[in-house]
Amino acid sequence: METTDLDIQVKTLPEQPGVYQYYDKDDRILYVGKAKNLKKRVSSYFNREHDSHRIGVMVKKIRNIKHIVVDSEMDALLLENNLIKKHQPRFNIMLRDDKTYPWLCIKKERFPRVFLTRQVIKDGSEYYGPYPSVRTVKTLMGLIKGLYQLRTCNYDLSQAKINQGKYKVCLEYHLGNCKGPCEDYQDEEEYLKQIDAIRNIVKGNLKDSLKDFRDQMHTLAEEMRYEEAEKVKRKINTLEKYQSKSTVVNPKISNVDVFSVVSDEGYGYVNFMQLSHGAIIRSHTIEMKKKLDETDEELLELGITEIRQRFESMSPEIYVPFEVKAGENVRVTVPKLGDKKAIVDLSTRNAKYFRMERFKQMKIVDPDRHTNRLMAQMKEDLRLSEEPRHIECFDNSNIQGSNPVAACVVFKNGKPSKKDYRKFNIKTVEGPDDFASMEEVVYRRYRRLLEEDEPLPQLVIVDGGKGQLSSGVTALERLGLRGKIPIIGIAKRLEELFYPGDKYPLYLDKKTETLKIIQQLRNEAHRFGITFHRNKRSKSAIGTELEEITGIGEKTSIELLQHFRSITKVKKASLKDLEEVIGTSKANLIYTHYHNNLDET
């Protein structure tokens, strides 16, 4: 069956939370959906028959899939709502109404109230959200009320009216839920400290509140007010269990375009997010082929111009990860902290995922191009003079010096070449000496390649730090190959790469394909070596007991074990059964050995 563009798009989706959008052949949006796992959710539409006629019709119309990656399932729900209201997709029926989600409001007033609302009024009050359900906000409000004593009345608590004695404390005061600012029992500064703490909790910053409560608890405990200390401890436990939500919308961010860029040696990927009334309403990523060696700044500037023209964006402000030129009428902001920085980071994440998906698609439809790009990337990252089309990696395996062995695995064009794997029994080294063992196997491997006039690798990797690398270099030096074959060592703890003669290691980004290939080589060498070592150790352990019998050698031991499957069954076998396998004389030796020993016991 031929693989279609749609199949490839589905196969290369990320396994992350996000929102997906289906488009028809005329690029009209059909459907917007959310997912905890984008790949799994979207795949489910295409790998089974649907009971619903509506879904079946929609799936037949899909020609393109777009998606936006977010941090959590809750973010996906909120973003889905924004996009449905913006685009009104034909097949969405659940969230197309104009229902608004709830917000948490800190009212702009003296002794501010904190309450749930569905209306965002531009009166200077602070709004946090939106939240996916009223239950979520009520849970948060319950947390806040359990931690802090706030007023719930809607009185105008100006100092003049309080001084005039216009108000009397209510039941909330007598229940201990409010400290009575209406009768001047609580000063404004103390109250506002509580509001600051609530702001931090809503934003997910619990550190200061936890510190304050712990200080209170210790003070009360020192004063032997244990019941009060226990109440504060319960507040600490409640706060520690609370999981703050991340946000993809902020009512303070409005009419803004967000841009970011990631690049490699051949292409740049520019992501665009459009925000309207504090919500993401569009996300799009473009791939740009480098003509020369353009910088990320140049790529981003080109991308901003093209995308703003394509989508006819007139937003007066753009958020970007670094300074760029975007024209006289556009304000450029480079956020450093807070929600603005979070939205730029989200854009960068989407650009990175788009790049990864393009690589996966390339592997499917154009594997040669993928290999060429990967080899060029490894050459650059590892500072090599030529592309490492042929890489070999060595690893030693021994347990307390027993049965020392080593393995050499071979990768060609970034993939394992298992027919070229080699395993070595250590011959010249006594005891557990990793350095000497490494020198022996590297020397033996390349001496043989030279003798047989076989091609040498473009890169040699040894599993270990400076010591193992030095041993490998010594082996190459003995063969006159030092400087002719690049050799590096990889240390497990921090994945440092060591080069001969370099005092400091090289650290690659943990997400780079180059490091992933090197880790794959190292792990494959370890797997191959440890398997060989275990087999050798188990054969040694099994064969030893039978071979201790005078007149019984390795070949006879193997024949017996292949037939009887275990030492225990050999011991219990009758003389006749043993004779059928190894003949009369050897059968007598084994039968007599075990049965005489049984008689003695």
Automatic annotation (TrEMBL):
Q: Give all residue intervals belonging to the GIY-YIG domain.
A: 15-93
Family matches, as PROSITE patterns: GIY_YIG, UVRC
The species this protein was found in: Psychroflexus salinarum
Major localization listed first in the record, in broad terms: cytoplasm
Which key words are in the record? Coiled coil, Cytoplasm, DNA damage, DNA excision, DNA repair, Excision nuclease, SOS response
Identify the Pfam families for this entry.
Answer: GIY-YIG (PF01541), UvrC_RNaseH (PF22920), UvrC_RNaseH_dom (PF08459)
This protein's assembly is summarised as: Interacts with UvrB in an incision complex.
Q: Which Gene3D superfamilies match?
A: 5' to 3' exonuclease, C-terminal subdomain, GIY-YIG endonuclease, UvrC, RNAse H endonuclease domain
Family, as annotated: Belongs to the UvrC family.
Is-annotated flag, keyword Ribosomal protein? Answer: no
Coiled-coil segments:
203-230
Return the protein name: UvrABC system protein C
Q: Which subcellular locations apply to this protein?
A: Cytoplasm
Q: Where is the UvrC family homology region profile domain?
A: 266-471
Known function: The UvrABC repair system catalyzes the recognition and processing of DNA lesions. UvrC both incises the 5' and 3' sides of the lesion. The N-terminal half is responsible for the 3' incision and the C-terminal half is responsible for the 5' incision.
